[in-house]
Write a structure and sequence with these properties.
Helix content of chain B: 40-55%
Largest sheet of chain A: 2 strands, antiparallel
CATH class of one domain in chain A: Mainly Alpha
Largest sheet of chain B: none
Number of strands of chain A: 2
Order of helices and strands of chain A: EEHHHHHHHHHHHHHHHH
Structural class of chain B: mainly alpha
Oligomer: heterodimer
Shape of chain A: globular
Number of helices of chain A: 16
Distance between the termini of chain A: 80 Å
């Protein structure tokens, strides 16, 4: 029999938490936030060096900062945070207990210790190999050990999530089909197992190579398997980000998916096809055939793109339908105009959706095409793209979710709500600026990994046009703005964690009666009521995205044609 | 903030019947197998085989 003391029921939302999940979520989020701070500071250093007018750091420090920034934010911030909230998604919506809390703590400490070891190695200049750590660049063995420890902890978390869901299913803790949020996190965990096992397959031999226990690591083999790890970690981000979108739409508006079947199908498409996108890192490499590259990136991966387009319609569609039911039904966009834009939970959700879709998503689709990839490969376009997905998309969604979940699990009111409100806009718009202008600079050929784009000490001098200096300056100014947004988020989180405990009302600004949020999270499809188009505004937004994708695709090919003119 | 407390009570009662498609994909074991097999075969194994079959340089 389940003991009542095992659970905590939030008096504000009615959500029932397995007690160990609260402690684990708090620990993971705190550790994640520490890495966001560290990674953010390192990122500022990188940006101030790439800003041509400033060019702050000498080359050796630049590459230390760049390696540290990549590891701290792409791996440690994102995945510690994901693990923390994944425990929530796999238990609370299905009234489940976490399968093995003690093992979950072991995994947490492995991730913390592993990430700390790797970070120390990077910051002491013993692992200046950048995020990708391509051989023959060789780091100190402790760097690889740290990454391996982190990966083992993370894969353990994924197995615990699956075990929890399987246990809940066998104990019948929920009726019917599992809620969409839990289905989403199940998808996340499955992708995670593939991801971290790929990491083990390549990182363990590389670790042995760093200790001279084996003589050689084939660089091409490393790249293939490494991107099975590194790109798939970013696919995990996408899945957890979309799970957040659906969840926040549910708790803010009572929105439910337009169709459970369609939304689940989109997640299943991710599961089967999203990891194929890893091959777009290899499009300019020798060794693999045209068939392999084209099948993985230009055909199979489009199934995952279809999944994203489905989510891109159903998430705003579900919000629109819920808003229209509340009476906000005039015209196409009253539901959006009168949405709670001052609430950082909503603004974070919606900006994340827009930035991910228009900047991160579309550019990812086009750069996965072998021909187009040739014009932007290894340029600033690539950081522009993935800052649109990981920062403007996932990180912003994490900010929004923090503002909802952290007050609930800490029983403390959200500190500095105004800073929280501004943090979303500053971080989102700053990152969107960086993304756009970095991609523009990439189109002009600015290399992504080079410390000095003026090539001042090059034997053969080369000078980019003045436009490049301007584009890079604006892009890095965007980073400064987003840095202020991130600082506001960190202040709000820090203030919340150390704030005064309150019995009720911690979940402000939601302020809804107990039971309402809990009922919404149980899922189910929105029943059809009216005739004709029920979500015309969202359909138009989705069509705008689709047309933008088509035009952008055409523009890229046209650009390719101007570079390789045949006269 | 929009008042949303009045419209969604008792919403569990109007859930759609669960389709066979949904039940099929609700199985964590089956989904795990398919979700790992797909990229393992079409990305990792295929890619590794291609790299392993690259002819060695003749010098």
């Amino acid at each position: 029999m389940k003991s009542l003391q095992e659970y905590f029921t939030c008096p504000d939302t009615g959500l029932k938490f397995h007690q160990p999940v609260i402690a684990l979520a708090k620990a993971n989020i705190i550790a994640a936030v520490v890495y966001l701070l560290a990674g953010g500071l390192l990122g500022i250093g990188v940006a101030l060096t790439r800003w041509p007018a400033i060019h702050l750091l000498p080359s050796e420090y630049f590459y230390i900062f760049l390696t540290g920034h990549g590891a701290a934010v792409l791996l440690f911030w994102i995945h510690l945070f994901s693990c923390g909230i994944a425990y929530f998604f796999c238990t609370t919506p299905i009234n489940a207990r976490l399968a093995t809390p003690k093992l979950a703590w072991v995994c947490f400490w492995m991730m913390v210790i592993g990430s700390a070891i790797a970070t120390v190695m990077v910051l002491t200049g013993q692992a200046t190999v950048m995020f990708s750590a391509y051989p023959p660049l060789k780091a100190h063995p402790l760097f690889y050990l740290g990454v391996i420890l982190f990966a083992v902890g993370a894969v353990g978390t994924n197995f615990i999530i699956l075990a929890t869901i399987m246990k809940a299913r066998s104990e019948k803790t929920y009726k019917g089909s599992m809620p969409l949020a839990t289905f989403g996190v199940m998808t996340y965990a499955i992708i995670g197992i593939f991801t971290w096992v790929s990491g083990a397959i390549i990182m363990i031999p590389t670790w042995l190579w760093s200790m001279d226990l084996i003589s050689n690591i084939d660089p091409q083999m490393y790249r293939l398997i490494f991107w099975g790890l590194a790109h798939s970690t970013q696919q995990m981000n996408i899945v957890i980000m979309i799970t957040i979108w659906y969840t926040l739409a549910a708790v803010l508006f009572g929105a439910r998916p337009l169709s459970e079947k369609v939304s689940r199908t989109a997640f299943v498409l991710y599961l089967f096809a999203l990891q194929f996108g890893s091959a777009h890192h290899l499009l300019s490499d020798p060794g693999t055939s045209f068939a392999f590259r084209t099948f993985t990136t230009s055909y199979a991966a489009y199934l995952a793109v279809l999944g994203s387009l489905l989510h891109g319609l159903t998430v705003p569609g579900s919000i629109e339908l819920a808003q229209r039911r509340l009476g906000l039904s005039h015209g196409l966009f009253e539901w959006l105009r009168k949405a709670p834009w001052a609430n950082p939970i909503f603004s974070g959700l919606f900006l994340s959706l827009v930035i991910f879709g228009f900047l991160g998503g579309i550019t990812g689709v086009t750069m996965s095409n072998q021909q187009i990839n040739m014009i932007i490969h290894n340029t600033m376009y690539v950081p522009g793209h993935f800052h649109g997905t990981v920062a403007g998309g996932t990180t912003l969604a994490f900010f929004a979710f923090s503002y909802w979940l952290v007050p609930i699990i800490t029983r403390r009111k959200l500190a500095y709500p105004k800073l929280a409100q501004y943090s979303i806009y500053l971080f989102g718009l700053g990152m969107a600026t960086f993304s756009l202008f970095a991609m523009a600079a990439g189109h002009l050929g600015v290399p992504r990994r080079h410390w000095d784009i003026t090539f001042a000490d090059a034997v053969l001098p080369f000078q980019f046009p003045g436009t490049v200096q301007l584009l890079m300056g604006i892009a890095e100014a965007g980073v400064m703005v987003s840095g202020i947004g991130a600082l506001f988020y960190l202040l709000s989180m820090f203030g919340t964690f150390v704030g005064k405990v309150v019995e009720k009302g911690a979940a402000q600004p939601l302020a809804e009666p107990a039971g309402v949020v809990a009922a919404r999270m149980h899922g189910g499809t929105e029943p059809a009521h009216g005739k004709g188009l029920e979500v015309p505004g969202s359909l138009i937004l989705a069509m705008v995205l689709l047309i933008f994708l088509a035009v952008y695709y055409y523009a890229q090919y046209k650009y390719l044609g101007t570079i390789w003119t045949i006269r | 903030m929009t008042d949303i407390t009045q419209t969604n009570e008792g919403e569990d009662q109007d859930k759609d019947p669960v389709s066979g498609w949904q039940v099929f994909f609700d199985d964590p074991g089956m989904l795990t197998f398919l979700g790992i097999a797909s990229p393992a075969i079409f990305y990792l194994m295929w890619g590794v085989m291609e790299i392993l079959t690259v002819p060695l340089a003749g010098y």
